[in-house]
TrEMBL record:
One of its GO terms (cellular component) is mitochondrial inner membrane. Its main location: mitochondrion. It is found in: Mitochondrion inner membrane. The keyword Transmembrane helix applies. Keywords: Electron transport, Membrane, Mitochondrion, Mitochondrion inner membrane, Respiratory chain, Transmembrane, Transmembrane helix, Transport, Ubiquinone. InterPro entries: NDUC2 (IPR009423). This is NADH dehydrogenase [ubiquinone] 1 subunit C2. It is a single-pass membrane protein. The keyword NADP does not apply. GO terms for biological process: mitochondrial electron transport, NADH to ubiquinone. The chain crosses the membrane at residues 26-47. Signal peptide: none annotated. Pfam families: NDUF_C2.
């Protein structure tokens, strides 16, 4: 994205065929599988049974955790979409508060380094 675009132009860009990072797509499953298996192991440990007895507990734990984390991810996406819509609406109503930034060279931004003597 270019620095010479106004705030409203940046907000109107949208996704532009961008995809979510790979880890963002699979994190509910990456976390849900160990948590589900761990839940089954902890239930068996608490009832003094062999670790992997009643494998259906582990399967249900994995399914439950993955479903819960997917739900949380979807709610998080909805929250951020609503937040972005509020920002976009505010910027559309008050464009004078968001001027187009002037272009600067990097040499103008940083002060020259002078060693302390």
């Amino acid at each position: 994205m270019s620095a010479h675009l106004s705030a409203i132009d940046l907000l109107k860009l949208g996704d532009e065929d961008r995809t979510k990072p790979f880890l963002n797509q699979i994190w509910p499953y990456v976390i849900g599988v160990p948590f589900g298996i761990g839940s089954g192991i902890m239930m068996n440990f608490g009832t003094r049974r062999p670790i992997f007895s009643g494998i259906q507990k582990h399967i249900l734990g994995v399914a439950g955790w993955c479903a819960l984390l997917n739900y949380v991810q979807n709610k998080r996406n909805e929250y951020f979409a609503e937040k972005d819509a509020v920002y976009r609406h505010y910027v559309e109503l008050h464009p004078e508060d968001f001027p187009i930034p002037e272009r600067k060279k990097l040499a103008d931004v940083f002060e020259p380094w002078v060693p302390i003597r």
